[in-house]
Amino acid sequence: MQGEYRTREEPERPLMVKELIEAGADVHLPVKGNGSKALHIAAYYAFPQCVNILLDAGADLNEQTFDDGYTPLHCALLKEDSQDLQTARILLDRGARLDLEDVYNRTVEQMVRQKRYTAAIELIEEYKKKRSQGPPQGH
């Protein structure tokens, strides 16, 4: 179901992530050989609370993997069976860049358009429009 992905984030998972960070876990260390960090994994598996905890702890929301150049936003939006719009929205709200390219010089927008992921395309268009308008007046 495109755009209708339901998170399977068990209630104890965010608590566990928070406790690991408080115990000294480094959110900047790769957890996989391709350079994926904990934030990439949390975004891929649609764990929005974990994404927020990792970002609050200083994880780089625009960090790219070594092998394919994916950011956490790529991980949230490019799953074959579903796209995690909730996590993608968190990443975009917190400043995820839309202009970063993978190793084949493709942006996340180009990739979701190629795959015809309608909900992801609409989300990206929404954020591009918001960003082009600048901050709300009076701020």
CATH topology: Serine Threonine Protein Phosphatase 5, Tetratricopeptide repeat
CATH class reads Mainly Alpha
- Name the CATH architecture: Alpha Horseshoe
CATH homologous superfamily classification: Ankyrin repeat-containing domain
Number of strands: 0
The total domain count is 1
Uncertain parts: 1-6
- The average pLDDT score comes to 89
The helix tally amounts to 7
Name the structural class.
mainly alpha
Report the C-alpha radius of gyration, rounded: 15 Å
The share of residues in extended strands comes to: under 5%
Distance between the amino and carboxyl termini: 38 Å
**What is the H-and-E element order?**
HHHHHHH
Question: Level of helix content?
Answer: 40-55%
ANK repeats: 34-66, 68-103
Protein name: Ankyrin repeat protein
InterPro entries: Ankyrin_rpt, Ankyrin_rpt-contain_sf, Multifunctional_regulatory
Keywords: ANK repeat, Repeat
